Amino acid sequence: MEKLIQECDVLINSLRPLPFDKALPVMQKGLWEIADKYGLTGAEVFQRYMDWKYAQQKR
Questions:
Q1: pLDDT for the residue 1
Q2: Whether the Cβ atoms of residue 24 and residue 11 lie closer than 8 Å to each other
């Protein structure tokens, strides 16, 4: 699994117990931190993660 995807998966899974309104700002900050490491935007990182999640469901 790509390192970027692993980091996103850890981040998003760590937010599961939080209500959406509390998790969203933390997720946005985390995605942008990951994005900065890879020269991407937070939106691009989230899109790659969601594409990966969708591909996992099709297996």
A1: 61
A2: no
For 1-58, write each residue's pLDDT tens digit.
Answer: 699 999 999 999 999 999 999 999 999 999 999 999 999 999 999 999 999 999 999 8
Whether 56 and 48 have beta carbons less than 8 Å apart is answered as no
Instruction: State the chain's maximal CA–CA distance in angstroms.
Output: 32
Chain centre to alpha carbon of residue 32: 9
d(CA 12, CA 15): 5
pTM for the whole thing?
0.87
Amino acid (one-letter) located at 24: L
Residues 6+ apart with CB under 8 A from 53: none
Neighbours of 21 (CB within 10 A): 7
* Polymer length of the chain: 59
